[in-house]
């Protein structure tokens, strides 16, 4: 392999510059932009990455998420997702030891998963730290539940993480543009060589996807600084996220337990509020004294599996490469880095096909 | 016991805080003037206040007055982080009562007082012959304290009381002699740390993970004060120089004066172990980390994180030392690098009331014809929060024994 000297870079895209547009500024969009930039900027003559979005933090769905690293209990239909979850956990864990952890919105957190009956251990039991079953005295704290787990996981607070990602991207010269993208064609004709589609729950507006649906969630944020553990309950009859959960963040505690498939209402619903409040106070009576700070609604981009694949667009004479990275359901923060790495790998394939690389990119 | 028929005598205390109707005192069974035992608790730190809460639950018809020169937030208990991880007192390995109890029992029942040759001050054999707190007692008191606080932590009172659960790790640079300490089955979910967990602490070779309780002095003490007042107790800010000042206004004195016992009880075995801590803002920290030596620790609280610490024997200096603060911060950052982002750093100093063992003991002070029963309840060193409820219950039992003795026409001890 020819070793590249300083200044001797292979040819880029049109006119020497590879133009990448990332659509979407939630955790998927921003982390993919960062991953691609850091991996390929050193080996391209010129890389221009832009982020287009109509909503930026604090108005994205990522901002609403509590941020607990925890995949679904059942195995994903795509086994790659397990690998992407693991990669994300390992990546975040490696950042824990730096002074930057708090800036990223990252912290270790331990807590309880509660069930009405014994269940098999989850596939991620060896990814998290110190996984074990709950002891009888611990279960006594939760009279409605008879079985459970204790483990140490991570919190990655959406809002703080997006701010951190934005800062890192800005440092690297990545441009942000607030705009509502009406079509992929518009972006392609605008000069993009590669489009990364991180439009989350509204991806269907750019390209119909019957498998994608909103999983509406509502959460209440409270001031309860004595809460040091997460408490997530499960009710198989009601389904995931439909049972109360309490997740402390850096400063506030998120209370939730709402999951409504197909509901696009952005307005906070009073019935949902009652359901969350009563469910969480029943689970943790100390919350009765907690002050409510805010309440919001978000939409999990629910899909049977993540759409992470390439597509080639042809508008007129030009080819534009499209990489889809959306449909992460309620586990976007949990899986984001593994998906960003995969998207970057797909991007690398594009570069290779176009003979834009003289040597393989360094592995992260 | 001095009697008068007036129920409204203010020193009784019981009816002062009785809510509601002016006739309430007529229904107050505490205030039958014949039978009310007037109890003074000296000291308003953790021991004084918890004992003051326990006493009315065990002693029928009493009034409780807490007298101290310092109240929260100015007590030693306000500085402590309040985490329930027992401090190892030197304890006798045997479970049988030691020789000291036998000597004490003998001395009490025969009214024998030992005197040092050439001195008029009584020598206290129990102080010099019986220094240690047996492990079975430590475990009992820790369990009682843990269970009591655990039920508060799971109730709606938790926030008002400042009591909550916290998980974390105790880590060791070399294998400890005891991998499983005596209190392992009292805390929740005790287990050894996994290899993956230990990776977070490259300088340490072994660790224990568990869930315990944190009891925050500046919140818990005011909550205890409220409970004392609710059951009719009084708080009196006053410095006591001699326990005899409390005679004859009070029938029984409970001495919870910590280091003040050097003067008030003539106890030269109690000495300060100075502890300096930092209180910082680092709300992302959710776990405690304690180095097995006990010298370096990180305890996340409700409104700040306590970083510690020091153990300086015999040091009475209450002013923070900047060099020590830098050292504490550096040691804690080595365990938890994210602390470099901590802000609003405040320094605090507390003097642990240290003794070879906790003093929980009755003493009948005698001077001429005067008698004053005293229950001593002090000397918990680093283990105040861990043991307080268990020892307060024991102190209240001793107070009740004194109260019973007052009531019954027992023969007076001869000098």
Automatic annotation (TrEMBL), chain A:
Reactions it catalyzes: D-proline + O2 = 1-pyrroline-2-carboxylate + H2O2; D-dopa + O2 + H2O = 3-(3,4-dihydroxyphenyl)pyruvate + H2O2 + NH4(+); D-alanine + O2 + H2O = pyruvate + H2O2 + NH4(+); D-valine + O2 + H2O = 3-methyl-2-oxobutanoate + H2O2 + NH4(+)
Keyword Iron-sulfur found: no
A cellular-component GO term for this protein: mitochondrial outer membrane
Residues covered by the FAD dependent oxidoreductase domain: 19-346
Organism: Equus caballus (Horse)
GO molecular function: D-amino-acid dehydrogenase activity; D-amino-acid oxidase activity; FAD binding; identical protein binding
Single GO BP term: dopamine biosynthetic process
Positions annotated to bind FAD: 54-55, 66-68, 181, 199, 329-334
UniProt cross-references to InterPro entries, sorted A to Z: D-amino_acid_oxidase_CS, DAO, FAD-dep_OxRdtase
Residues bound to D-dopa: 70, 234, 245, 300, 330
UniProt enzyme class: oxidoreductase
Cofactor names: FAD
The protein, known as: D-amino-acid oxidase
Family note: Belongs to the DAMOX/DASOX family.
Keyword Electron transport: no
EC annotation from Swiss-Prot or TrEMBL: 1.4.3.3
Keyword annotations from UniProtKB, A to Z: Cell projection, Cytoplasm, FAD, Flavoprotein, Oxidoreductase, Peroxisome, Phosphoprotein, S-nitrosylation, Secreted, Synapse
Transmembrane spans: none
From TrEMBL, chain B:
InterPro entries with a match to the protein in the record: D-amino_acid_oxidase_CS, DAO, FAD-dep_OxRdtase
Name used for this protein in its record: D-aspartate oxidase
Catalytic activities: D-glutamate + O2 + H2O = 2-oxoglutarate + H2O2 + NH4(+); D-aspartate + O2 + H2O = oxaloacetate + H2O2 + NH4(+)
Role description: Selectively catalyzes the oxidative deamination of acidic amino acids. Suppresses the level of D-aspartate in the brain, an amino acid that can act as an agonist for glutamate receptors. Protects the organism from the toxicity of D-amino acids. May also function in the intestine.
Cofactor: FAD
One GO MF term: D-aspartate oxidase activity
Alphabetical list of Pfam families matching this protein: DAO (PF01266)
EC number: 1.4.3.1
Lineage: Eukaryota, Metazoa, Chordata, Craniata, Vertebrata
TM segment ranges: none
A single GO BP: regulation of cell communication
Location of this chain's protein in the cell: Cytoplasm, Cytosol; Peroxisome matrix
Keyword terms, alphabetized: Cytoplasm, FAD, Flavoprotein, Oxidoreductase, Peroxisome
Binding site for D-dopa: 297, 352
Protein family membership: Belongs to the DAMOX/DASOX family.
Residue stretches making up the FAD dependent oxidoreductase domain: 38-398
KW Flavoprotein (keyword) present: yes
Predominant subcellular localization, coarse grouping: cytoplasm
Family matches, as SUPFAM superfamilies: FAD-linked reductases, C-terminal domain, Nucleotide-binding domain
Highest taxon above the source species: Eukaryota
Cellular compartments per GO CC: cytoplasm; cytosol; peroxisomal matrix
Positions bound to FAD: 76-77
Record has Ribosomal protein as a keyword: no
């Amino acid at each position: 392999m020819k070793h590249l000297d300083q200044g001797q870079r292979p040819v880029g895209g049109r006119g020497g510059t590879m133009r990448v547009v990332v659509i979407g500024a939630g955790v998927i969009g921003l982390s993919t932009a960062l991953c691609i930039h850091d991996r390929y900027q050193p080996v391209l003559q010129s890389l221009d990455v832009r982020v287009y979005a109509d909503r930026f933090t604090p108005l994205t769905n990522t901002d609403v998420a509590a941020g607990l690293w925890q995949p679904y209990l059942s195995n994903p239909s795509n086994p790659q997702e397990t690998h992407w979850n693991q990669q994300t956990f390992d990546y975040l864990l490696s950042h824990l030891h730096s002074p930057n952890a708090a800036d990223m919105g990252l912290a270790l957190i331990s807590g309880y998963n509660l069930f009405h009956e014994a269940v098999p251990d989850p596939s991620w039991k060896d990814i998290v730290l110190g996984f074990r079953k709950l002891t009888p005295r611990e279960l006594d704290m939760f009279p409605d539940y008879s079985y459970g787990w204790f483990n140490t996981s991570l919190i990655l607070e959406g809002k703080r993480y997006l701010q951190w990602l934005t800062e890192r991207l800005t440092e690297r010269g990545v441009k942000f543009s607030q705009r509502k993208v009406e079509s992929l064609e518009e972006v392609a004709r605008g000069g993009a060589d590669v489009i990364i589609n991180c439009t989350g729950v509204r991806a269907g507006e750019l390209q119909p996807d019957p498998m994608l649906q909103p999983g509406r969630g509502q959460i209440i944020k409270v001031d309860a600084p004595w809460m040091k553990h997460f408490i997530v309950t499960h009710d198989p009859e009601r389904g995931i996220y439909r049972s109360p959960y309490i997740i402390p963040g850096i400063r506030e505690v998120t209370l939730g337990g709402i999951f409504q498939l197909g509901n696009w209402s952005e307005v906070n619903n009073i019935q949902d509020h009652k359901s969350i409040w009563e469910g969480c106070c029943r689970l943790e009576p100390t919350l009765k004294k907690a002050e409510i700070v805010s309440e919001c609604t978000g939409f999990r981009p629910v899909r049977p599996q993540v759409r992470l694949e390439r597509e080639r667009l042809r508008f007129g004479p030009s080819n534009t490469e499209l990489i889809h990275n959306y449909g992460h359901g309620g586990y976007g923060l949990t899986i984001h880095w593994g998906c960003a790495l995969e998207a970057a790998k797909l991007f690398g394939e594009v570069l290779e096909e176009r003979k834009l690389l003289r040597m393989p990119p360094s592995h992260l | 016991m001095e009697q008068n028929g007036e129920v409204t005598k203010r020193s009784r205390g019981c009816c002062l805080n009785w809510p509601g109707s002016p006739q309430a005192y007529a229904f107050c069974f505490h205030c039958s003037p014949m039978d009310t035992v007037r109890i003074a608790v000296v000291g308003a730190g953790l021991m004084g206040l918890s004992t003051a809460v326990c006493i009315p639950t065990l002693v029928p018809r009493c009034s409780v007055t807490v007298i101290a020169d310092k109240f929260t937030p100015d007590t030693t208990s306000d500085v402590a982080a309040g985490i329930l991880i027992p401090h190892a007192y030197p304890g006798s390995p045997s479970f049988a009562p030691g020789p000291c109890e036998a000597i004490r029992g003998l001395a009490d029942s025969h009214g024998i007082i030992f005197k040092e040759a050439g001195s008029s001050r009584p020598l206290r054999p129990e102080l010099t012959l019986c220094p240690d707190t047996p492990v079975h007692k430590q475990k009992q008191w820790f369990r009682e304290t843990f269970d009591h606080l655990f039920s508060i932590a799971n109730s709606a009172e938790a926030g008002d009381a400042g009591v909550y659960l916290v998980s974390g790790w105790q880590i060791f640079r070399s294998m400890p002699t005891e991998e499983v300490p005596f209190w392992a089955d009292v805390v929740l979910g005790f287990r050894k740390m996994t290899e993956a967990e230990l990776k977070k602490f490259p300088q340490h070779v072994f660790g224990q993970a568990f869930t315990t309780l944190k009891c925050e002095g500046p919140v818990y003490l005011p909550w205890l004060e409220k409970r004392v007042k609710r059951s009719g107790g009084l708080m009196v800010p006053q410095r006591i120089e001699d326990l005899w000042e409390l005679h004859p206004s009070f029938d029984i004195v409970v001495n919870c004066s910590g280091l003040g016992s050097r003067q008030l009880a003539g106890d030269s075995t109690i000495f300060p172990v100075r502890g300096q801590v930092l209180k910082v803002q680092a709300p992302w920290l959710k776990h405690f980390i304690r180095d097995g030596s006990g010298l370096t620790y990180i305890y996340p609280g409700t409104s700040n994180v306590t970083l510690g610490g020091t153990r300086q024997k015999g040091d009475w200096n209450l002013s923070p030392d900047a060099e020590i603060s830098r050292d504490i911060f550096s040691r804690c950052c080595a365990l938890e690098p994210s602390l470099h982002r901590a802000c609003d750093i405040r320094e605090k100093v507390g003097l642990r009331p240290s003794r070879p063992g906790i003093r929980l003991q009755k003493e009948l002070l005698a001077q001429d014809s005067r008698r004053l029963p005293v229950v001593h309840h002090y000397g918990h060193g680093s283990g105040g929060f861990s043991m307080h409820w268990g020892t307060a219950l024991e102190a209240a039992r001793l107070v009740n024994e004194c109260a019973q003795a007052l009531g019954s026409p027992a023969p007076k001890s001869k000098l």
